[in-house]
Amino acid sequence: MSKLVISSIGPASSVQDGGRHGVQRYGLTPGGAMDALALAAANSLAGNALFAAAIEIGPFGAAFTAREGAVRVALTGALRNADISGRAVAVGTSMTLADGETLTLGFARGGSFSYLAIEGAIAGEPIFGSLAVNARAGLGSPYPRPLQAGDELPAVAASGAAERRIDLPTLADAPIRVLMGPQDDEFGDATKLFLDSEWKISATSDRMGYRLEGPAIKHLHGHNIITDGTVNGSIQVPGNGQPIVLMTDRGTSGGYPKIATVITADFGRFAQIPAGKGFRFTAVGMAEAQAEARKFWQKLRTLPDRVKPIENFDLNIEALQDANVAGAAVSAIDAGTWQIPSAADALTPD
Amino acid sequence: MAATLSPPRLLPSGDSAITVEFSRNIDATANRRVLALDRTLARETIAGVTETVPTYRSLLVHYDPVQIDFDTLSQKLGILAQLPVPPVTNTRRWRIPVVYGGEHGIDLGDVARTLKTTPDDIVARHVAGDYRVAMIGFTPGWSYLSGLPDSLQMPRLLNPRLLTPAGTISIGGMQAGVQCLAGPSGWHLLGRTAVRTYQLHREPIFLLEPGDAVTFSAVDAKTFAEQDRAAEAGEIVAELMAS
């Protein structure tokens, strides 16, 4: 049996899959990949089930080494420099590490999360059908915590299959679409300020929530409501008026009014916005949001059809990396970004 | 007898969930309707509904927009939510042992002073309460209880604590709580229980269900320590009473 050894890895990196469902009524959040489409794309390249467990890699660099045999992997999500023993490889492709070879990844550029799927998928003991790491609840397998250097993930011996690629065009800089509500009536005219302003994601964000920096959004009747349920993409506004977008490790309930909700089709794209980069929201109606959600799931389910042989793809690597240079200039990541959240960042029950 | 109850508000929580809101306040009638709709949806499944999350005043209904759209589901939920609430049968009743005061409940003395009585009287009032699990949320197993006696209601702390112990038994406003994991809290800490409302590798992983009845009993520190060891080894420790 081969294995993939984590040679080095930054914070905010953990095993994630499609998440655990059906237990929010007990206070257990679904968790799972921040960018479900990128996870499914990596699994498609590796020949795995779409929501199989893979490595979610935060914005910092990482290195993975094959031991006791060759390991085939696939890399998707945020653009990065990537090489295997000095040989450049591209995001959006599968690749095989010979025994002893190391895949080295640079900082994310123009995104936050990458996904590294292992051919045959990560094996572990599922809890409520999922291996996803939820550090706060002590959940996750094979390690119930973020990954650390020295961790080992068992892998099947590489199949030797021809390497493949997948192209996933994204609307990188389009506004993030939201549905207003459920408590937009708590904000009056401030909803216009919310939609008209440029926002940035704070460096103190994490898998529970992205804190936004921008103008203060004022409540009409104070910031405490009686707690109610949350979803991925709920945009709640605490007393200081700085919205928090709830992400996949969110609390299942919360007591701040929620001005709007990121639509399903844009949630992964939102999750990939780097800290400090400006973006805007735009409101859409229910019919459009649901049509987009149906298109999104259709696109995700048909990802395996988009997988192509890798021939001639080497030519594109240089162009791709040139294109990334501009991105690197605007998405510098400071050391304060993506630290493990401190207790001071945690919300309290209400 | 009225044929139907007042209509709830049906609020979109994004494109894949609906908040069925019965009240804007903590309100026992609203919570009964929340739990009744939750039971109805468990019994009469609607294709496309994936998960329901009860809270004090609303039921969050997660659904798959590929299978059912907002208008169709809203209409169905609106009808089901206005059906008369059937009487609850077979309520489970738990008795949860608590060690009160001292290092286990650091706010007991302050609560007694604020309410101008003795710590023993606060314990007596808390033990006398007949509680219901109104909702579970925030973190795994954090159980919010309705039924706190009026004589124990007081505002929450102005400055929440960043870390409170696992198993904390607390009160805040008109609510009582059973906390499972260590974490932040702005409530008043009366004591601790060895009962794990959430424990992996135990069957069931989650002990309490929304709608369960709960009472508390006082135990001494030695008993707590014994129960804590037993609970760590997977025992349930809480007593399931005949309802």
Description:
The complex is a heterodimer of chains A (350) and B (243). Chain A is an alpha+beta fold and 350 residues long. Helix content of chain A is 18%, strand content 27%. Chain A has helices at 36-46, 190-196, 264-271, 286-301, 303-306, 314-330, and strands at 2-9, 14-16, 54-57, 62-67, 71-79, 82-84, 87-88, 93-97, 102-105, 109-118, 152-155, 164-165, 176-180, 199-201, 209-213, 228-229, 234-236, 244-246, 253-254, 258-262, 278-279, 281-283, 308-309. In chain A, strands 21-14-15-18-17-20-13-22 form an eight-stranded mixed sheet. In chain A, strands 7-6-9-4-1-11 form a six-stranded antiparallel sheet, with no helix packed on it. In chain A, strands 2-3-10-5-8 form a five-stranded antiparallel sheet. The model of chain A is unreliable at 322-346 (pLDDT under 50). In chain B, the strands form three sheets. Chain B has a seven-stranded mixed beta barrel with strand order 5-12-9-10-7-6-13. The two termini of chain B are 28 Å apart. Chain B has five helices and 14 strands. Chain B is an alpha+beta fold and 243 residues long. Chain B has helices at 28-43, 70-81, 108-114, 119-128, 221-232; strands at 9-12, 17-21, 49-54, 58-63, 93-100, 131-136, 143-146, 161-164, 168-172, 175-178, 183-185, 188-192, 213-218, 239-241. At the A-B interface, strand 16, strand 19, strand 20 and helix 4 of A face strand 2, strand 3, strand 4 and strand 11 of B.
